[in-house]
Design a protein that fits this description.
A hairpin with a 2-residue loop joins β3 and β4. The strands form 4 sheets. Strands 11-10-9-12-13-15-14 form a 7-stranded mixed sheet. The protein contains 9 helices and 15 strands. It is an alpha/beta fold.
Length: 314
């Protein structure tokens, strides 16, 4: 679609009654989400021609109205999009995400959709499903690993999973003033590693991915999101140093049974292994990893089968 055609399409969404009362200018910037579809984002400057403007146009419902000056208001799709993301993630969260976090998720989705058209990063195609299946599950895990994201220090729970207790140290390291080293094994499209980083920005994140194209995507994503203390390690997890991580995450990996000992090898003593798996894989994980104290087993919201399983290396 040409710029002129995009302008025309956007203008058509504003009713003739509203256009008769106000002056409108459109500025297309990227692609963001409307209520039911993804479309070019538009910033609409509305200048008053009378004392008040009453928006009775249903095509504008759901958009954020921001004060843009004494005689104008700016209608910005970004506010609507962030609100939509926040609403979709609400079942997974204990507390609301910040605008910066929501903006990072929005950018992440746009990059993921663009790259997914070229390489198979995820079979989930609809943005709404990406938000809930990937981001929802990942941030659900993140808030249980790091209940206090500002400290970036992992907490452990009692075996019952009913109460969380501060972990004074992980793997012999004091995290009172430092941040945990998180390793995401078989990162693929970046889940759950990058959402964990979005939730707890101070963590030191390493994304291990053996596929060259996926590793390239992850590097672009890290750059675009402006993440610091984050590295993409292209290669096999078996090739990386043992006992190098305080938190190791595993989600949606091939050859699950064989990757478990490899992931466990990366954890230091007292470190946390985080598995986002199907309920049918729980007993397999517990059977293979007998030297872990399994702390939490939680069903992922809006899922009957997905489970967050967390264990501490003894």
């Amino acid at each position: 679609m040409s710029l002129q055609e995009a302008h025309s399409a956007a203008e058509e969404q504003v009713s003739s009654n509203l256009k008769a009362e106000i002056g409108i200018s459109f500025h297309l910037q990227g692609h963001l989400r409307n209520k039911d579809r993804w479309q070019p984002k538009r910033e609409v400057e509305i200048t008053r021609s009378g004392p008040t403007i009453e928006n009775s146009d249903s095509s504008l419902a759901g958009y954020g109205l921001l004060e843009g000056g004494r005689d104008s208001i700016v209608l910005d799709d970004r506010a609507m999009e962030q609100a939509s993301i926040a609403k979709l993630l609400r079942p997974f969260l204990r507390s609301e995400l910040s605008l910066k976090q929501l903006e990072s998720i929005s950018t992440y989705i746009n990059i993921l959709l663009r790259w997914n058209a070229r390489i198979n990063l995820t079979s989930v195609r609809r943005p709404e499903q990406i938000v809930q299946r990937h981001f929802g599950e990942s941030i659900f895990a993140a808030q249980h690993i790091f209940p206090d994201p500002s400290s970036a220090s992992p907490l452990r729970a009692k075996a019952s999973g009913t109460a969380a207790l501060p972990m004074a140290s992980v793997g012999g390291q004091d995290f009172s003033s430092g941040a945990a080293a998180v390793v995401d094994v078989g990162s693929g499209a970046g889940f759950p590693g990058i959402p964990i980083k979005i939730w707890a920005p101070a963590v030191h994140l390493n994304l291990i991915e053996s596929n060259h194209k996926k590793a390239t995507f992850l590097k672009e994503l890290v750059r675009a999101l402006g993440l610091t203390a984050a590295a993409v390690l292209q290669g096999r997890a078996e090739d990386f140093p043992a006992e190098s991580a305080d938190v190791v995450t595993v989600r949606a990996v091939e050859q699950f049974e064989s990757i478990l000992p490899t992931a466990a090898r990366l954890t230091t003593r007292g470190a946390i292994l985080v598995l986002l798996i199907g309920a049918g894989q729980i007993e397999t994980a517990k059977f293979i990893l007998k030297n872990f104290d399994w702390l939490r087993q939680l069903t992922v919201p809006l899922s009957d089968n997905r489970v967050l399983l967390m264990g501490k290396k003894e």
